[in-house]
Design brief:
By secondary structure, the chain is of the alpha+beta class. It contains three helices and eleven strands; from the N terminus they run αβββαββββαββββ.
């Protein structure tokens, strides 16, 4: 029981309770474009590069060096960018598939403009979404040069003018 308390306390259905400290999505882009993607995310969204690990089995003088994992910080969150090569052991085989990233900001139009200026393609106008949208506020959508879709959303109003949530 003392060991259980040290490892997170309560048990649920026979499983040890686990607390996570972070969620870091990993974006795979077609090799060898991860370095370019990192530069794009820095220019488009103001991301800060925290670290970069190159693929250890690729020798710069023999093969094109690939990014195994580049960590970028955006606001209080982080995400990873990696090259996806034919010989990759990545859990996916198609870059930019089935994944949308939502960024929250007060300046949706400015964020969309920055992304487009850095090389993204705007997908439609910035609109105000109704209930059930990703954020319930203003939303713009861009596709980055690597095929990934980014929703840029304003936070939903906590209390609307008429007193509704």
């Amino acid at each position: 029981m003392a060991q259980e308390a040290q490892n997170g306390g309560a048990r649920n259905g026979g499983s040890k309770q686990v607390t996570f400290s972070a969620l870091k999505p990993q974006l795979f882009v077609e090799a060898p474009k991860a370095k370019d993607a990192v530069q794009f995310y820095k220019a488009a969204f103001g991301a800060e590069e925290v670290n970069c690990i190159m693929h250890p089995k690729r020798k710069a003088e023999q093969e094109l060096p690939l990014v195994l994992s580049a960590e970028l910080k955006l606001g209080s969150s982080s995400f990873l960018v990696s090259d996806l090569a034919d010989d990759s052991s990545a859990p996916i085989k198609t870059p930019g598939s089935g994944f949308v990233i939502c960024l929250e900001t007060e300046d949706v139009e400015g964020a969309v403009a920055n992304a487009v200026n850095a090389g993204a393609v705007s997908e439609g106008e910035v609109v105000t979404e109704g209930d059930g949208a990703c954020c319930g506020g203003r939303v713009g959508k861009v596709k980055d040069p690597y095929g990934l879709v980014w929703l840029i959303c304003a936070p939903a109003q906590k209390v609307a003018e008429g007193g509704e949530a």
